[in-house]
Amino acid sequence: MMQHPAKIVLQVFGFAALLAFGMNLGPSGSFAQEEKQEEKEAAESIAEPMFNMPKSGPFAPETISIPNAKAIAAWSRSGHADAASESFSHWNEEGEIPANCATCHSGVGFRSFHGLDGSPKGLPEDPFPIGGVVDCETCHNPGLSRITEIALPSGVVHPVSGGDVSCMTCHQGRASGARVTEATAGIAEDTSSGELRFVNPHYNIAAATTLGGYARLGYQYPDKTYSGRFNHAKPVATCVSCHKPHDLTVAEANCLTCHQSGDAKAIRIARQSYDGSGKTDKGIYHDINANADLLMSLIQDYATEIAGKAMIYDGTRYPYFFADANADGLADEADGRSVSYDAFTPRLLKAVYNWKFITADPGIHVHNPHYALELAYDSVEDLSAALGRDFAEFGLLR
User: Fold this and answer.
1) 323 strand-pairing partners
2) Contact, 111 vs 117, CB < 8 A?
3) DSSP string of 159-184, one letter each residue
4) Do 103 and 110 form a contact (C-beta atoms < 8 A)?
5) What are the φ and ψ backbone dihedral angles of 160, each rounded to 5 degrees?
6) pTM for this structure?
7) Which residues sit opposite 311 in a β-bridge?
8) At 137, which helix (H) or strand (E)?
């Protein structure tokens, strides 16, 4: 710092000269005041911040680079993030999600079920708050690596690795063939029973269909054999081999590694027709759909001719299958509500369960086409026998 002029005068010319010089010290006319002012300014300069930031904040959000921004954006557009969808808003009027539903319909419920939040594993007693979705931690919680097996509705315990835990937990369905067997035990195959009710395998059950006959989640007819897990190809070993993990869309480019088309509905490797059409220039998706449609036709014929009460299907409302006693194509009404179908026979319930199982997975033609074709074939064959139809005329292959 430069020395004050008054100090120089004092040192060189003495006090008298200082008095003379004092007339030029500035507005204050005081050496002491000048020195204090300098010290104040020096202190203020030291106290100034290292960086000058705008009052609005240290950065503008749109200019900052977030490493996982693309993943978050993709997730936000996916069904897993859609809080307004039926999957996550179904319980809004009740104000809470039952514990058994929250396992898959709320990230908080999922973590509680697996004990990832420090709570005991298994279904908790209390419900969960509404508003939850499949959030980031549902699939990225570090504790997932410690989970090595998942129990399926059939009782099969399936080994899993960290990446499969979330998918296998929530897409395994809620029922199995064993439940249908238990419900129909002791009742003659073609006897209607008011005690029988539709058994729902649930929705988007890709994990259930992928595992095939090994998991026994479809209704498997006695003395029949069923294809096991569909391993596809060695590089396609997990769900994210085909599905982009955040936006959930199909990675069609991966299909092109082996197939001529990235459109899964157009892919076919079988050189024989399974639906009796004789056409092999279409995707296996179409064979499965044709057989499912045939099965539904026979289900409705059986309901009318054998069970004694016509049935209609309405996929927009539970329990989907309704009574149509006067066969007018409309669900019967009672007390202002549609009447659930109440004339199931064991044979009919088994076929209905398999039809719903096949159609509950929109990607079953990729996840396990073999299992889908087998379940449809066996169900059509069983109903045909009861209806007296010539099953061979359908030209189906198993």
Assistant:
1) 311
2) yes
3) E--HHHHHHHHHSS-S--HHHHHHHH
4) yes
5) -140, 160
6) 0.83
7) 323
8) helix 136-140
